[in-house]
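Summary for the funding panel

The consortium committed to producing paired sequence-structure records for every protein in the target list. Below we show the first two records in order, beginning with the earlier of the two.
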Amino acid sequence: MKIAATYENGNIFQHFGRTEQFKIYEIEDGKVISSQVIGNDGLGHGALAGLLADHAIDVLICGGLGAGAQNALAEAGVEVVAGASGSADEAVESYLKGELISTGANCDHHHGEDHACGDHGCGHHDDEEGGCCGHGGDEGGCGSEEGGCGGCCGGGPRLLFEGPNAGRTVRVHYEGTLNDGSKFDSSYDRGEPLEFICGAGMMIEGFDKAVVDMEPGEVRNIHLMPEEAYGQPDPAAIFTLRFEQLPGSEALEVGEHIHITNSFGAPFPVVVKAKDESTITFDANHEMAGKELNFKVELVEVL
């Protein structure tokens, strides 16, 4: 069995037709035995169904997608689980446990986190940390205006950095810690190295830069300032709604992680920041925004 997830920097990319990458998981006996990230070959929307069919994909996990893409995927025999968000690895694990349910999320050809009043849907989402070094920063991420891989002019990755590993697929183990020593993520704990195209902006900037000139077997310890990781928190990503604008939100608790949908039907993760008698405030910033990060990085192999 093969599962594909729309993919950007470790997370489920929220617009199927605009995804630059898919992460493909090989499943045996209900467990992931291998995974790899592939580009979109310069394709978009309905044509991506053919790409997935060529890779013998059985299930697609994504955020939102339009009716045309849904029809094309159905014709290709691909089961669609829409409305997912957060870590791609965790979404796949939830699917294998029978805990990930498709919401049938639709989206049009526009993609953005437009917090328009009255257009939000609310759903609980266990947004635990995982695969964090691959979670997107706003700059240089695959699919962003700069450094996106698989561009329409040729399908190959556009490289952000130079070095012996630039443009090559690498497999790395890593452990991430905060300055207080607390561990927030580890590929060692998951028992599987992280695989990505080095220098193509698929990872946060500082992590990518560190790997681009490493040799197989080398272990490197790096310290990243926020500007090299997830950036500083964006005040514009904090917004307040009245309870009537988001039915069910009155039952949420401060600190709770959920996902809500924007005005185009695409879900995105938020955390409840504050709440009073009539309103609730959400924070859509990445949980690592504004933090200095430390990584132990081991280059396992260059493919």
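The next record, for a separate protein in the list, is shown here:
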Amino acid sequence: MARATVARTRVVGLNNINNMFGFGQKDSSGEEKAGAATATAPAATMPAGIMSGYIEAVKTLPSEDDVVAGTVSAIGRARVYIDIPQIGTGIIYGKEYMNARDILRKVGVGDGIEAKVVMSENEDGHIELSLKEARQALIWSDAEAAVKSGAILSLEVKEANKGGLIIEWQGIYGFLPASQLSTENYPRVSDGDKDKILVALNELVGKNLSVVMITADQKEHKLIFSEKGLQDKEEKGEKINKYEVGNIIEGEVTGAVDFGVFVKLEPGLEGLVHISELDWGLVEDTKALYKVGDPVKVKVIEVTDDKISLSIKQLKENPWVLASKKYKKGDIVNGVVIKYNKHGALASIEEGVAGLVHVSEFETEENLKSKLSLGGVQKFKITLFEPSEQKMTLSFKEANEAK
């Protein structure tokens, strides 16, 4: 009985379609009307205008991950139906409804909405949608636009760690590295202690900072911010333009870190003296040489768009120039062992003039350390001497064989 009902429904449906397009219609004599389509060749006499309009109305379903726009047509229990023009009916329900329920509770019939396709067509013929994923896609699109425009954002600091600050933008957590903090907020810790740096950074938690977004990577789910905004950059650029290579300036040490020393040149402008530019001699601990607040004279050695590189050692006489007049290859000299490294030991023959004694002369590192103790004075032979390149090698073995 059920099958018969279904079959009859299908026949009635087919007849309706035939009648709609004028298929199989007969005149009063029982003959098919002129121009009516037959079963064997319906396309020959089909009204082209009507069928082309019908075909035009049939649209391709959207693909997964497409973002579509529509109007809320009905709201059910834990589900929202959306009319998507020329495509069909979309639905947000189940997990996707729960993920966006706080937003969906505020929408009403007739409201416009954008959502992301998670299934092109389910078993009920609906297009399954996700409001949360669509919102995420739109947010990342906004983030990319923010990076390009350099828009200044006022955002609250949520947390701090030893590397910087965690801030939130449109529900996404991003990172503001300590190196990207303004001069005013940069943690100045004299001994570089990371725990003290964290204490200083924690003082910024809860405060709003003016920042720009410099990185937006949706795949990595990564946002990076900088407090050095466009205005700061422009102001800093104007200050930097006043300096030229070769300028000698009286500055003040504002921080000593592993890789060098920061020096304030004027309010709002600092330069870096890299550890290699602190002294002609070996520098292992910048904090042992300089403290915050120390006055210091520096020389400008490089100026770029956003930074100034400084040198302290270039204001001192180059000891290699003096050494070039006193020493030559083959000389036997006294040297003080000042450091071990993976290649051997460094021995200084003058303040700021040191050479390498290679470990291969001692077969093992243990033998080298037993014969060349730190701080000990030994005789060495200069086996390579290039003062213009500040390069020298020494031989303990050859010097002592020559005795």
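Regarding this second record: The chain is about 25% helix and 35% strand. Residues 1-57 have pLDDT under 50 and may be disordered.
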